[in-house]
Amino acid sequence: MEQLNIDYSTISVDISKKCQQLLHNIDVNTVSDTFDAVKEIVEIAVESYSFKVSEYWIDSHSTADTARKIKFTDVDTGYEILMKQWVNQNPFKAELPECPNNISESLDEYVARLKKKAFAAGAVGTVAIGATYAYSTSHVAAQAAVGATCSKGWLIFGNPIVAIAAELIGIAILYATVKQKKDTKQQEFKQQMHELETKQNNYKKNLIETLTLAAELWLKDAETYSKNILANF
């Protein structure tokens, strides 16, 4: 009997297309979905292959005795059912490369966290101003007795107006720091994204090659099994 063969070239193209379609972003979920899709492709390929082999065998053995034909098409022990059992007992497997990690904190999340800290610091300063103002107004006479020298020295911060000015300067410094850190983080983030994109592209290429090779080896095993059991019919 002339042996039919699985079209590895077409299947490789199908695998590549499906991988490109699913791996729009590299993470555990998309990699898992891609593996499942490739598994489905090769299983369908074996099913289609065994069906064609079965048809070809029946056509080429039209003059065979009835008992032999019944044995070949038996619903429990016939050729096609044995091929289905082989697929179930030998599921498609592949050792996939480790998936690259994404950046743990996005730029927006980082900036939001910095701003939250700045607002918290500003709120603390505002409370301090209120306390300073309350203290100052309740001790006007005492402050007047201290004298001009002290008023121009370190006790100047007892003045609520000066305290407010100092606080505004402090908040301005805080926000300038936030902007500086944001700009630095933005450059760092862009660099990380570039590195991640390179890693993901390399990973995608490696994954497709790994799955394509694993698929070809698995399909060859299916072909070998098919040829072996055909000898029994």
Provide an overview of this structure.
This protein is 78% helix and 0% strand. With 233 residues, it is mainly α. Residues 124-129 and 131-158 have low confidence and may be disordered.
Order of helices and strands: HHHHHHHH
Give the end-to-end Cα distance, rounded to a whole number of Å: 11 Å
Number of strands: 0
SS summary, helix count: 8
Give the low-pLDDT segments.
124-129, 131-158
List the SSEs and their pairings.
Blueprint: H1 8-22, H2 28-60, H3 66-73, H4 79-89, H5 107-138, H6 140-146, H7 148-151, H8 160-230
Helix pairs in contact: 1-2, 1-8, 2-4, 2-8, 4-8, 5-8
Summarize the structure.
By secondary structure, the protein is mostly helical.
Q: What are the defining features of this structure?
A:
233 residues, 0% strand, mainly alpha
